[in-house]
Amino acid sequence: PAAPSGAQCLEHDCFGIFWAARPFAEASAECERGGGHLMTVRSTVAEDAIALLLQNRSGRLWLGLRLPLPLACTEPAQRLRGFQWVTGDRRTDYSNWAPSGRRCGELCVTVSRELRWEERRCEAPADGFLCEYNYAGSCPRLPPAEGLPVTYATPFGARGGDFLALPPGSSAVVPALGLELRCDEEGEGEGLRWGRAAPGAWPCRLANGGCEGACGEEGGRPRCSCPEGKVLAPDGRGCSSPCAGAPCQHHCVVANTTFLCMCESGYRLAADGSSCEDDDDCAVLPRLCEQVCVNTEGGFECRCHRGYEMLEGHCRPVSRCYEAPCEQRCEDVPGGYRCGCFPGYAVDPRVPTRCLLHCNRSQCPAQCDPHSLSCECPEGFLLDDDTDSGQVCVDIDECDMNFCQHNCTNRPGSYECHCHAGYQLLDQNHCIKIPEDDREGEYSGDFGPGPQTPVPSRTPPKAEHLHPSVLVGIAVGALSAALALLALGYHLVKKRCRPPATMDYKCSGPHEKEMGLQPVASGCAA
Question: What are phi and psi for residue 89, nearest 5 degrees?
């Protein structure tokens, strides 16, 4: 790019002045060739930079303001009068317009020696232009050394020795030492520094020889040294930790002028001395977990057997009772739950979640509701009043009702039929004769029923062989038996009748009475 007539850098921004008559478009292109754009003046700091560059020289210089199309007229009431910076925005904290009314046409802006902004037709050439260059960082000027003048050159073509800061890519030439330095990044993320391609220090009297640590002479040659715990960088001037660039996978520890690699807990250092391998904690530390140990990358995980769950670091049996439909009690067992009952009740074998009243004696206290005054009894029991105990449940002696064909044994709430020798039970109450071929001795009636026809307990006499007087006797006997049965039935009905609020229970089978209840209406049947 063309060299500016003057230039200066403030921190990360540089400005150049070009005294060359150009229209606005050509001036803008010239700035862009140097990596910048026409100058934006957004604050008094930029105004001070213009004053420094002008050095009281007369003339009008292009700024980076242009009236955007299709807007053809200015707006004097606005801060930028409708103009826009070449960067595409209208942001500014400063303006210094010369008095002017509303104007129309293709207009741009110049600045005069008095620092006043004036509107001018863009195609008309101005006396010169101001360029602006923005950078991400800068190098400070080298500290002055007696007898060592320095000449700087910037990437946008400016040269001189009075720069306050230099952008990246600038060079510093020291003719007395035959030395040329460059403003570049010394390392990733380390920022900009003055350096050179050749490693090692330059004479210590200029900028400490470029050393980050101390600069000294050894055998008449400059040499850099670093503080304890650091080593010289590859360029021979910078200082870095021995761990910088170390191949450690996890951690690096400085040991004098070298480094050691270390691994996190749960890992061990591999044979290469830098990478880390997982330790099988479950194998190294037996009984690490209460039940099951599972090794993981860099650690381990404790788990529980089926039927258990982890609670506060311990395996506890999984409770299923909170969701169990048990009517009274519940007990957790491996793999599930088991329902139970309160005293006086037994688990219903047909519905294991329910409880039925249960009595294993001939008489038990009735289960009464104090609110409704109703009482309940197990199957095979009748509700009765006892002067000492109040409402009680009394066992029904089913053997008195001749349910069994042969022999009968009464039990609390039930009964059991037995057969004579040579017979076996057909069903709950009847017996059948055992065929001669199947007999091997006397039988007690404990055999299951076969496909035989029930044998009547007694054979009724044939009516056609009876004498008339005998028939009269039989009729009188039958009437007497009927009266006796009627009296017995009245007695039983009287015992079973009670107020409508109560309920009785009767067994549905001889072997089911102790485990189940079936409600029977307390009203008496006719």
Answer: -130, 175
